[in-house]
Amino acid sequence: MSGGTALMLMMKGGVLRPARLVNLRRxxxxxxxxxxxxxxRVGSMTTLRALEKSPLLQAWPVxxxxxxxLSNVRVRNVATVGGHLAHGDPHMDLPPLLSALDATVxxxxxxxxxxxxxxxxxxxxLETTLAQGEIITRLTVPAMGxxxxxxxxxxxxxxxxxxxxxxxxxxxxxxxxxxxxxxxDKPTRLASVDAADGLxxxxxxxxxxxxxxxxxxxxxxxxxxxxxxxxx
Length: 232
Hints:
Blueprint: H1 5-12, E1 32-34, E2 40-43, H2 48-53, H3 61-68, H4 73-76, H5 81-86, H6 94-100, E3 104-109, E4 112-117, E5 122-124, E6 127-128, E7 135-141, E8 148-155, E9 163-172, E10 175-181, E11 188-190, H7 209-228
């Protein structure tokens, strides 16, 4: 258990009934720093609010903007970066953005440490590629450089509700990275803008597949426009 914001809801709903809980709070896995190549290094037990407020995020304003619309301040004060990434719910906001930014996580387990791209963490709805006994210890986000990025989401009710669609776009010269979430069972990278029409879309309480497909057409164009006109 890291922040417990998702875990406790699952336990209350009877979806998860663990025999025991292990709190990771005392492992010393929090903290934010810059690496030698200008990359952002975030300990997995860092709260989302601490990340949002960190002055080190000045070079990644797109992450700050995304965090400000993620759930609400009460949740962000408790929820952690590692828990957010490890939960595997496709409606989470950071996984698509971090995937588009080519972020990686460091994972520790009985066999030692390994590195994994954020987008390779997810196998399906609430399914991750973390093995038994493995935990995320650190998130690493490459320096932005000249890249420009945007993340947009559509919520069908309140602004801090689960999104019906999330779209992350990163522009790097002639290269465009697009990762879609919420409308799919896991964060999904598009090979091109044209590939959006062939994407398998999931229907849920937030909208039908047809509705979300139309949302994707609109929000993808908006996200590309916002990324082009952003400072980073």
